[in-house]
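User: Modeling request: complex.
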Amino acid sequence: MMNKLELNEDKVLEVRFVGDDDVLNHILDREGGAKFKKERPQLLVNTKKIIKKPEYDLKEDGIEVLKDKNYVEVLGRDVQESLKNGSATVGGNKVYSFQNRKHPEKMAKLASELAKTPRKNVSYSLKNDPEIMTDIPQCSKGHSPSDEVQLKNNDKSEFISTTRVLRKRLIAPRNHSDSESEYSASNSEDDEEVAQEFEEDTNKAILSPKTQAQNRVVSAPVYKATPSKKMKRDKTSDLVEEYFEAHSSSKVLTSDRTLQKLKKAKLDQQTLRNLLSKVSPSFSAELKQLNQQYEQLFHKWMLQLHLGFNIVLYGLGSKRDLLERFRATMLQDSIHIVINGFFPGISVKSILNSITEEVLDHMGTFRNILDQLDWIINKFKEDSSLELFLLIHNLDSQMLRGDKSQQIIAQLSSLRNIYLIASIDHLNAPLMWDHVKQSLYNWLWYETTTYSPYTEETSYENSLLVKQSGSLPLSSLTHVSRSLTPNARGIFRLLIKYQLDNQDNPSYLGLSFQDFYQQCREAFLVNSDLTLRAQLTEFRDHKLIRTKKGTDGVEYLFIPIDNGTLSEFLEKEEEES
Amino acid sequence: MATSSVSKGCFVFKPNFKKRKISVPIEEYFNEGKNESEDSKLRFETYQVIWQQMKSETEKMQEELNKNLFDSLIKFLQKSHSGFQKNSRDWGCQIKLREIPTAALILGVNVTDHEFTFRSLTEAIQNNVTPYVVKLQARDCPDIKHFLQKLFSQLMDCHVDVESKEEEKDIQKKTHCSMDSLSSWYMNVTQTDQGKPRKKRTSSQWQSPPVVLILKDMESFTTKVLQDFIIISSQHLHEFPLILIFGIATSPVIIHRLLPHAVSSLLCIEIFQSLSCKEHLTTVIDKLLLTTQFPFNLSEKVLQILTSIFLYYDFSIQNFIKGLQLSLLEHFYSQPLSVLCCNLPEAKRRINFLSDNQCENIRRLPSFRRYVEKQATEKQVALLTNERFLKEETQSLLESLHVYHTNYFLVLRCLHQFTSSLPKYPLGRQIRELYCTCLEKNIWDSEEYASALQLLRMLAKDELMTILQKCFSVLNSSSEKQLGSTAKRIEELLAQLQSLDAEVKEEEDASGSQSKGLQKTDLYHLQKSLLEMKELRRTGKKQTKFEVLREKVVNFIDSLVREYLLPPETQPLYEAVYFTAAHTLHEHLNAAPRLALHTALNNPYYYLKNEVLKSEEGCIPNVAPDICIAYKLHLECSRLINLVDWSEAFATVVTAAEKTDANSVTSEERNDIIHARFIRAVSELELLGFVKPTKRKTDHVARLTWGGC
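Assistant: Request completed. Predicted assembly structure:
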């Protein structure tokens, strides 16, 4: 909507501008009179053209004029046409806006919206979890501006990141007090201006980022009312500033709360799964419908695979189930390999190995991967009756996204009798492929947004966030420590304690070997540094200790496990003993 | 067998042998998935026939386009090597002998299509000049050692004798690759070859054939490697006759920028320019689309998408042809009446065998419905009820469609002759632009067309005549004499123009006397008389004979355009031969995965058509899928996100969504579940690449995107 408006404005402006020019020309021409016959028709032509598309005038050659707008228009139209499975109604320029940046207004809108929805919820959270949620009700109480400012000052120090959200929630109520309706540009303008001034007067210096956020919210309607070029420039520069504000080297302000303090942080894979299984999936009917839509494409996929295209699936949601169903319905009678790209141990080597060893029953070995690839390619070229389907879940996973791996898979997929159907999930996955690889892959893109949870894909330990990874190191820690002599256990505990004592020290490198030896001696754990070294090798073999050379050449020891896990380990140890 | 395991990531499935033998023919996939099989077998066969024709046509065309370039290259290779053969004592020759003959092949920026060019070039050289052709890529040669190794191993492969292959492999393993070993190998091979009676390769009469080394992407080679190699090989040139071919993407200057003078002076460079890819595209469109040879046509949007992908993304002809193939496939797959998309006699034959269902399909075509509405009532009834009558009518319609196309392309080419030379190219310089405009709408309604006509009314006589002559030859080129009268008319006009000469002279005399009179007046009078002249011209009283004739020509071409360049939508049955589903093409060739993600996260209602999810733009209802909520919340944060805060915000939103109906579960358990959902949402966002764990602060994740809301 606004985009269009903007475009119209552009056009109006252009017309006026060029019109002036034209009038000038016109007058000059009449006065000159001599070249009259020659110039005039062309001028007529010009005015018309300029009104239509200004680019013509800018590029004198005018030939292969890059009709950007036209192109975008065409695509936009198409997208709208495709009701069924289109990429989006949004049209490219909203996500990657180059011409008219719309962020400020949108942010404002979002903010007001967020202010609306969560406010309803606050009461719930109050009941459920009063301790944690105190800050939110506090804020939502505020109605008079002065009150708010105070409040903001109070909680600013601690919960900046949350308050960033909350701030926005605050703004909306002020504009239209209690009514939940969307504010219209006309009637709230005055209030806002007053509020803004007030805000600026009271605490300009302290709350500068805050006011900026406000500016955005407040000024959006104003912009709507009086569009002008200058304002537009402001908006874009505002965006730029925002970017640098967020990415400046200055310290990032977020609250210091950690998950450790909340007692619910530690979930292992199993409990997580159990918990999630209790969640009843929402929108199952719609999801089913979506999936049915995609299943109808199976035949088409087979056809296109056979005609030399390869298929890549993209879109939000796990595509694993879909591909599994494809496999179950279409591929039962043909040789195929399923490759879990998300598997942390996957590599191109293992893919090639399974082709040579299991599909082609070749027992020999190869000097390197390229040899192996050549061998496979030759084999498939020789025997045209050989057919192989490759199903790759997450072609863009950590392990496969490397240039070499992609090159090899692309070369495989370019073979006439190897059919590749893959899924990608990462936001930037298409960047993996340059022109060469893309032409080797010969992709046909299919959007399959399923919204299904990425259960398998995220189930491997290392793909999850820190809070989850605690269980495995912990269990291995206890396991190893049980097999140790009491002395060795003592040594290890010493190091843990030292590390925990120093956890707030940002310049902490580790415990130097000499100090460590000294401490161990004092605790009667070792009698010479040789014995200490012998003990340490044990830990090193289990990857429980790492050494680093400091700047002074001294060896520092540290445990590459996060402190939470370590303290928990200590607690357990103490319980046992 | 399950496909998930904690110990492996590859699962091979081999059906037992008996089953495997029954392979499903591809046609099966073509008609399955749809309930009624409307001539699908026939359609698929037609698809394959047309696609094969198109493919061979493009291959032929590519060969022709490359022919000139290859011929001159081969001539160069032969010439540059002749000096080596003669072994003359001439001083100039000896100087030349120190220089490595080098062909700089300027190909323009496009990597993918070049592969094909190089492949055919290698073939051409192998057939005509020398068996020893080596292609090297920068990627394979990080240093001079690898460079020589690659060169060596590829040379071995070039050497065709099978029996000696084994031992050579051993040699290759044993010998340390150096230029010395290379040249001794070369001596060895050429001498043994001389000894043996040669069966083939009569074309290369050389006693010592040169070794041609093609560097595919010269710019990306390390300069050090290049320099070293050139210096070394120039030392060995007298025993190892090397010729270099550089593939250059930018400009010939790059050679001098990459190589210092001392090195580049060792080269004797000649530059060859390949055809630009834009011209290539023009020929492809000309040969495949602007012709009645193939019954298949593209609609305006489809053509525009394909050309846009070409011009804005990759400059790749292969991709363009891939797009063409896909549209062909889609057309035959989705349009049941595409069975009529074949040559005219065959289509007529096929109409007779159309099923009732297909007849119904014809009646349902919008273009056919429009046609029916224009007919008299009794004919309407007959068309809608009588199958026989419908089939006959369809035959005649198809025929007229064919005629329409024949005329269309001829007139289009004529119009292009007129407009392609106008200043500022109001209708585009390339014929494809003109074609697009014509396909889209009535071209004569467009402002560009009006201005083009205005410009045409100002053409000089000789320009007009050359254009008319070209048009005449265009019209004559077609075998079908649909526009015979038009050609004749043009001929007449041409004759009239020629006979004008004498009269024009008179005209000039008259105007000359007038201007003489003007010279003596003062400024005031001059102004006055000029005004008068203007007045006169505006009313157009005084038109010369030439002007009248020019007007005639312009009007003539205008009438041609109006008669023949009707947009295809106006033709009944056009759906059978035009592929219009531009969006599918765009979706599959030029997808926007980021956009899809964005929409799915921001506006779940777009996919899940549930009224609950309906919301205004930019905000999200709190019942939306977890990942959408988490995403929305994370947009509010700057670079780092505190997980605790995030999870609390998430919990707030989600608890609000869950009404208090969940009395059965304790609040403790519910909190746990919500927390688990949050963990899932965050790890999914991590998988999608929106956040990543960071060590800068405990329990924080870093945002990886900026903006995007």
